[in-house]
Design brief:
By secondary structure, this protein is an alpha+beta fold. The protein contains 13 helices and 7 strands.
Length: 494
């Protein structure tokens, strides 16, 4: 190899090390806070290890035929242990996908290099004869110039091919990273094997193709491209298809996981909706009984109070005080919110009691729309989920804690707005329309906003989320829009 080829290999190793670090941090958590220092050390160790690896392969050509991936595997495993936290399933996938992708790409660019250099060979043989025959240059100068020209041509071809290899490898890693699972998501055993199997398959095919592509004859490698020219097209095609298989498996795996999550959320939603329906029915019955009880008790207390005042005026102050206490107790049974519907009255009463216990200021200006074709259960689900989320968010804040509920109508549109203080943390996943939950068990939490949006879209509405800052405090604004059509009665969520 010429000196410039060693320099090219060194540059490729540096870039490949940078890609390796960027790719690994998509799946594993860094041990050290200083990312730049970690990246620099990773790249330098990786490049040094690869250069030593290459020099050893030059001394032992047979080493390159099969076991060359073992030091590569050891080097990346060591770097993972030094710079990232341990997570065996994710580490195994990163190693397998990274090594398999880089190695199989050699069969994408090596046929291209072989084809170009094959065209250059006859031209390089013709050019000296032509120049010598014309007498343009003497033999010594011509030989020296052609040697330099040949080195430049070989270096240019290798540089272009390595550049193509790095570019394709970059997009391969980027696609996998784009569709990979979040860092806090655990992989199950069957999921690990599903992801590892394509990578191991690609690596096995690469090793098989490497053994088939080279043969030993008097210590010289005879490339199969000269014997079977069709491989110049087939091998790049096969290698790219294998890379596509790995990427497709990751995309499909992520799609399956999301489908399972959506199915799990749908089942939870159906169960919760059924529970809410039953609770609201029970509360409605209790509310009706309470109204009747309040009315009867007030009438009895009024009669007893009138009797005491008329027949025992001034004689029994203790009895009058006791009857006054009973009146005040019954007054507490009155709901502070009269929304126009008993179900929404009960929900606001519950939230008001929870807020009072947690020292959260709660204000409500909510009125159930009259003559609107909304199922009261759907409105109850929206209110219940929105206000419970608001209570949980406000409870985590320091200082002032408040929740404001409003409703209003504009033409055929009915709006529900909820504002509350929160700690300022919102997690948005890629291509997500709603923020993700910050709770640990993400597969069973975080369906409240999904419930609200599902009910809103049933009435051709939607949900809007805004975050503002008021007096150095973060405020979460949730707006739910429903389209009401008075002559149309829509079914409830089942």
């Amino acid at each position: 190899m010429y000196e410039e080829e060693y320099l090219l290999d060194g540059l490729v190793h540096l870039l490949n090390g940078w890609l390796g670090f960027r790719y690994t941090e998509l799946f594993l958590r860094r041990k050290h806070a200083n990312r730049k220092t970690g990246l620099l050390l990773w790249v330098m160790i990786y490049a040094a290890g690869q250069i030593l690896h290459g020099r050893f392969m030059e001394s032992y050509p047979l080493y390159d035929r099969f076991t060359h991936v073992v030091p590569y595997l050891i080097l990346l495993s060591l770097l993972q242990q030094l710079f990232f936290e341990g997570n065996l399933p994710r580490q195994a996938f990163v190693l397998a996908s990274f090594i398999a992708g880089w190695e199989i790409l050699r069969f994408t660019v090596s046929p291209l290099a072989h084809a170009i250099l094959g065209l250059w060979g006859p031209f390089w043989g013709w050019l000296p004869e032509h120049l010598a025959a014309k007498g343009i240059m003497d033999i010594g100068a011509l030989t020296e110039a052609m040697a330099a020209l040949n080195r430049a041509a070989v270096f240019s071809v290798l540089a272009v091919c390595r550049g193509i290899q790095l570019c394709v490898f970059y997009f391969y890693l980027k696609l996998i990273g784009k569709h990979s699972a979040p860092l806090d998501e655990e992989w199950k055993a069957q999921e690990i094997w599903y992801l590892l199997t394509p990578c191991i398959t690609v690596l096995a095919i690469d090793l098989t193709m490497r053994l088939m592509a080279y043969s030993v004859d008097n210590s010289a490698l005879m490339i199969i491209y000269d014997r079977v020219p069709e491989t110049l097209v087939l091998l790049p095609m096969v290698s790219l298809l294998l890379l596509g298989m790995v990427v497709s498996s990751v995309v499909l795996f992520r799609g399956i996981v999301r489908f399972k999550d959506e199915e799990r959320k749908r089942l939870l939603l159906e169960n919760r909706v059924a529970d809410v329906y039953q609770q609201i029915k029970d509360l409605q019955d209790i509310y009706g009984d309470m109204r009747g009880l309040r009315h009867d008790l007030r009438a009895h207390i009024a009669s007893i109070t009138s009797y005491v005042r008329n027949h025992q005026a001034g004689e029994n102050k203790e009895l009058e005080s006791y009857l006054g206490g009973m009146e005040r107790t019954i007054a507490r049974l009155d709901f502070a919110d009269r929304t126009g519907n008993p179900m929404t009255d009960v929900i606001l009463h519950q939230i008001r009691q929870q807020s009072k216990r947690k020292n959260i200021a709660f204000s409500a200006d909510f009125h159930y729309p009259e003559k609107a074709a909304f199922d009261v259960y759907d409105v109850s689900i929206i209110l219940n989920n929105a206000l419970i989320n608001a209570v949980e968010a406000s409870e985590k804040t320091h200082g002032e804690k408040r929740i404001e509920l409003r409703s209003y109508e504009k033409g055929s549109l009915f709006f529900i707005e909820v504002e509350n203080n929160f700690d300022g943390r919102l997690v948005w996943e890629k291509d997500a329309e709603l923020p993700a939950t910050t709770k640990q068990e993400k597969r069973v939490h975080g369906i409240g906003l999904d419930n609200i949006r599902r009910c809103a879209r049933k009435y051709r509405g939607d949900v809007e989320i805004q975050v503002t800052e008021e007096q150095l405090r973060k405020v979460f604004h949730l707006t739910v829009m429903l389209y009401r059509k008075e002559d149309e009665m829509l079914p409830s969520v089942e």
